Amino acid sequence: HITGAATVRGPLDRDVLRTALADTARRHESLRTTLREENEELVQVVSAEPVADLEEVTASDWAAVLDEEASRPLDLAAGPLMRTVLVRVSDEEHVLLLSLHHLICDGWSLDLLLREITGHYARLAEGPAGNEAPSPASVQFADVELWERPVTDEDMDFWREHLAGAQTLDLPTDRPRPPYQTHRGDAVPLSLPAATVAAVARATGASTFSVVATALGVLLAKLSGQDDVTIGFAASGRTRPELTDVIGMLVTTLPLRMRPAPETTLRDLLRATHDAALATQQHQHVGFDRLINECVRERDLSRSPLFQVMLSINGTPPQYEFPGLAVDPVPVHPRASQFELSVHLEQSVEGLGGFLTYNTDLFDARSACLLAERLTVVVEALAADPGARVVDLDVRTAGEKT
């Protein structure tokens, strides 16, 4: 599931917040959805009335509560698939935690959800004038299927060519790989030099994503000794204006293939990565499941299919406003790893930071920290000497060289 949290400082009205949650769930069918099995098939069941409980906990150590809540499972059949917990730190400080199953929510939706809850709270806080129940959202999650682009032969030809002969990334690990892929994980902080990334992007006409993806591809190539690297990244899936405000799981995962051959310069690799990222997004409506079925000949149960490393970069975190209250987003420390490694970054006025999530059955925290530091080394090399060849690049940190 996906989690989000925010600190709320000031005189919070919990009854108003509870009503704001119910109004939000009333507007969006996805927040009233559960799943049940009928004739060996999963069926979505949308409740007519919202079930938006607000669980309240008192704890001075709210970080421990977030940790526990972020890993607490959700019951798909009984529901609801959204759980809201309010941690009371003091009369003037609370932490609001939202936990939703990924079947009904993605990162974009989580932002929409927090904005809508705060908007309803502001309306209700005005008194009787704001008590009128809001109308349902004009586009519901179930409507999305009506606008799905058909998958063409051209789409599948693109993906078959993009992934033809792609190598499986084989990184050195701290422990032997288990016979079956596991998802036990942890995370270490990651911070990249935002000004350096921005300078490279301006100088080359590339995006921030392409700069970081190129650096990550080079690092993985140097560590694995391979010159064919595929990573995953998330595309919003909101390819039409009507889908902008839909709460649901619209995001899709795409494989991005890079070929950091030894003689390739960093500049040329960055250009190729940028072009490949744009091309893959043109065909993002092909579902990930279909890509696996069409492009994976044999499944290796010890690894995720198509790629083993994920990269996601979010824009500047939004600001949420409760009247008379100060609201600030809180990063939730990942405790599971869908892939061997995942780089999660967020752009903000402070910089480009986030987490490097790693599978704890494969890597130690020390190795994860070293990977994070080495990624910075490659980013700085892209800026300092874009004409350098991959084969000549030393990804070791200054501490490793002494």
Write the layout of secondary structure elements.
Elements: E1 2-9, H1 14-27, E2 33-38, E3 41-46, E4 54-58, H2 62-70, E5 82-90, E6 93-100, H3 107-124, H4 153-163, E7 185-192, H5 194-204, H6 208-224, E8 229-235, E9 252-258, H7 266-282, H8 288-295, E10 309-314, E11 326-330, E12 341-348, E13 351-359, H9 365-384, H10 398-401
Parallel strand pairs: 4-5, 8-10, 10-12
Antiparallel strand pairs: 1-6, 1-11, 2-3, 5-6, 7-13, 8-9, 12-13
Describe the structure.
With 402 residues, this protein is an alpha+beta fold. Strand 5 and strand 6 form a beta hairpin. The protein is built from ten helices and 13 strands. The model has no long low-confidence stretch (mean pLDDT 91). The relative contact order is 0.16.
Q: Key terms for this structure?
A:
402 residues, 6-stranded mixed β-sheet, 10 helices, 32% helix
Backbone shape: globular
| Overall mean pLDDT | 91
Oligomerization state of this entry?
A: single chain
Cα separation of the termini = 43 Å
How much beta, percentage-wise?
15-25%
Largest sheet: 6 strands, mixed
Model regions low in confidence, pLDDT < 50 over at least 5 residues: none
Query: Percent range for helical residues?
Result: 25-40%
Query: What structural category do the secondary elements indicate?
Result: alpha+beta
Domain Condensation: 5-400
Organism: Microbispora tritici
Protein name: Condensation domain-containing protein
